[in-house]
Each structure stands twice: as structure tokens, then as C-alpha cells.
Amino acid sequence: MSRFLYKYMTLRDDFFANPMIRATPANHLNDPFEGRFSTQQVRDAIKNHDDFYLHQGVGIYDDVDDQQIMDSMVYLQSDIDELGIISFTESYNNTLMWAHYGNEHKGVVVEFDFNEPFFVASNHNVGGRATRFKKDFMGTCFELPEKVDYRRDFPDFKRPELSAPDNMNDFHWNKFYKAVLFTKSIDWIYEQEQRSVVRLKDADLIICKESKYLCAACKADNNIQVSKIKDDRIQITFPEGYEAHEEMGDQSIKNEVFLNVNDPHAMYFFKINPSAISAVYFGYKSIFEQSLINIKNNIHLSHLENIFRMEPDENRYQFSPKKIMPS
């Protein structure tokens, strides 16, 4: 992971008043191959799992049957459907990225310093780093960004070292999840992506379609705020670090809320540690005056001095940052 990573975004003035970042459901990304896997990949992985445990003396030899494959496919897809992707890139000055993800240069790029905790409520110590979430035994979540692997072919799980556990303490699907979540077509290589993978149920704010079941789940705790917004949508806001205070696992309120968000257009946001914001680059078409006011008024961003507007270069097909300061 690089120390500094960048997020291209549509400019939302309120981002600098209350920094939050959106996690896109893994099954709703703009690449239709995201999160996909085949029956052959699953069959190969299961065979290597079985061989590993057999050699450890805790398994028995048995052919992998079709029902086992189908059951595993459902199980794996269900896990992936509960995940959200937060995408970063290694450059703030990629013209294609500005056009595709920076709202055609009307947006903003935010630089994050990953020497700082990224999320608020980062009270856990994982590998000497302050993190919000504990180490994930299941191997589906990666709070700290990791590089995406670009290739033409789908991940191959035929070789044991690519799918079997390394030891008895590893969850047997760890390598499979990581390969599926961090591999993309070579056609996307211009993005230079590094990504975090989080559980959608851990979001601090959810915007979704209103339903009586969802509202009933939220009423179980008066600390959860529910407000109506336009049309038939609501905004659900949890107290900071709410999931850390729940000890009920799958019976938690956050899990109950997530299970009742039956809305393919739902949006999931996570609170960002303001100290992790180290620079801001406004697109050359951005209207950013209100954002500058919000930066100045947010005491948690008083450290932020690197604020730029991108300007077309006079001699090259690229943009150059010009420093600006809040008035």
C-alpha cells in the first residue's frame, strides 16, 4: 500500500463539513466481471481444500460432486454480496480518471495519508496500525487498501498454492476471496487502483428506499437517527463506531437494518478521519467556493494546507495543480 492514495469524486460541498466516503456494493460496480467466479474455479478450489485437509490427517478422500459446487457457489456469492468496495488510485493527475470519475473535471480528487487511521473510531490495533475493524478471519474484508491485479484471464485455482490454506489456522476460502476481489481485466489498468473492502452493514450512514420493516429495525435503538429525504427515501445515521458496541453478531441491529435494505440503489457511507485528508485537488471546471468555506470552518481540517485547482498545461496534454487557499 502506498502512503498517499487518491479518490476521484463528484464534488459534494458537505464532504468537507462531514467527511464521509461511499462504499459501492461489490455486485454493483461498473465492471460486470467484478465479483464473478465460475463453477470450475470453485471445483478446483474445493479439490485443493480437500487435498490439504487430507494431508493434514483431518479429511477423507471424496469426489467433488455438483451439489457441493452449487452450495459453495451460493455461499460464496452471498458473502460477496455483503461487501462494499472503496476505490483509490495512485495518481491525482490522470486525465481519463478526471473525465470518468471526476464528473468531467467538475469534481474533486482527495488525497489520503494512510500513515493516519483512515476511518473514525479506529480503536483496534492490527499489525501495529490503528484500525476501525478487527482482523477478518473470513478473509473477505481488507480495511487497508491493497493493489488490484490486472490480467486478461480469470484467476486460476488449479494449483494448490493458489487456493489451499497455508496452515490449519487459515480459513480455507481466504485466497479465493482475495483473488476474486482484487483481480480485474487488463483493460482497466489505467485506473492504477488500490481498494479497501468493507462490510456494507458497518456503514455509518445509509440512504435507501423506505420500508416498514426497515423503520421497525431502526426503532429498536433511539440512538439511530432516521430522516426522510426526497421521494420515498430515508437516511439512516448510526452513532460513531456503533458496531463496536454491539456484541450480538448476526443478531445485531446493524445487521438487521442491512438485511432489510431491499434497495438496489441504496448508498452506504463511512465516516473518514479528517486527519487522513492531506490534500485536495479541485477539477478545473469545479465550482468550489462553498467547499473552501467548509474547509475553513471545519476545525478538524485546520491542518489542510495543500489545496489546489487543476489548470490545463500550456505545453502538454495534462493538467497542473495551482495552489489556492480558503479566503
What does this 3D model show about the protein?
The chain is an alpha+beta fold and 327 residues long. The chain has seven helices and 17 strands. The strands form four sheets. It has an eight-stranded antiparallel sheet with strand order 7-10-3-2-14-11-13-12. Strands 1-4-15-16-17 form a five-stranded mixed sheet, covered by helices on one side. Strands 5-6 form a two-stranded antiparallel ribbon. A hairpin with a 4-residue loop joins β12 (225-228) and β13 (233-237). α1 (39-55) packs across α2 and α5 (212-218) packs antiparallel against α6. The longest helix has 17 residues, at 39-55.
Give the topology, please.
Elements: E1 4-9, E2 20-25, H1 39-55, H2 66-81, E3 83-89, H3 95-101, E4 108-113, E5 124-126, E6 129-131, E7 142-147, E8 149-151, H4 174-181, E9 183-185, E10 193-199, E11 205-209, H5 212-218, E12 225-228, E13 233-237, H6 253-259, E14 267-271, E15 277-282, H7 289-297, E16 307-312, E17 319-323
Parallel strand pairs: 8-9, 15-16
Antiparallel strand pairs: 1-4, 2-3, 2-14, 3-10, 4-15, 5-6, 7-10, 11-13, 11-14, 12-13, 16-17
